[in-house]
Amino acid sequence: MKGIWVGWAVVAVALLQASVASAQDTRFELGVQVASTHSWQFDAGDAGIGGRAAWRPSSLLGIEAELNLYPRGFPDRRPFSRTRVEGLFGVTAGVTLGRVRPFARLRPGFVDVHASPEPFVDVALTRRTFVRFDVGDRLVRYPGPVFESNPRRIRERPFFGHDFRFATGAGLGF
Predict the structure, then answer these.
(1) For 74, which DSSP code?
(2) Residue 98, class by beta-carbon neighbours within 10 Å (0-12 exposed, 13-18 middle, 19+ buried)?
(3) CA nearest 75: which of 164, 148, 162, 166?
(4) Any idea which architecture 2-173 has in CATH?
(5) Where are the alpha helices (DSSP H) in the chain?
(6) pLDDT of 116-162, one tens digit each?
(7) Residues 8, 36 contacting (CB under 8 angstroms)
(8) 128: Cβ–Cβ under 8 A, 6 or more apart, which residues?
């Protein structure tokens, strides 16, 4: 788990030094990001890489889609999945304050759990770049039966769990 946070910190520092935020005058954005989650049900963390596309039809509202690949086994001890794909789609609302845009968002989506690895696309950055940091709560429906490690029990019926989610990324505005 420590390696995930060290890797994330290195990526964040590199992106901050190499990028200049210019989101206040852009309508379309494409970006790459590193996302991490922590599942309280399984007492385990997960890290992935992905991309995001957004359209801001007005200065207050935006529409975005995000797709992330989590390539490692999950959880670390006794993994039940080797690869997960997460897709989130929704709206953002917020004001632009200089070069910063604090916002709230509503994004339903999916997490596809499967055994075969998937490729991802690498996007090159140019002058009209931005840096983005997201903190959130991912609500996941588990179909059951599932063995939970915290507390140690078996859940026979479907249930919803909450995962802490953090993502940082950079992209291109146009």
Answers:
(1) B
(2) exposed
(3) 148
(4) Beta Barrel (2.40)
(5) 2-18
(6) 343 333 344 556 777 878 888 888 887 878 777 777 888 888 888 88
(7) yes
(8) 22, 26, 172, 173, 174
Closest CA to 139 of 167, 158, 162: 162
Task: Judge contact between 154 and 145, C-beta under 8 A.
Answer: yes
Which residues are bridge partners to 173 per DSSP? Answer: 29
pTM, full prediction: 0.58
Q: How would residue 69 be classed by pLDDT, with cut points 50, 70 and 90?
A: very high
CB-CB contact of 122 with 71 (8 Å): no
SS3 155: strand
For 105, the token pair is 């968002």
Three-state SS for 151? coil
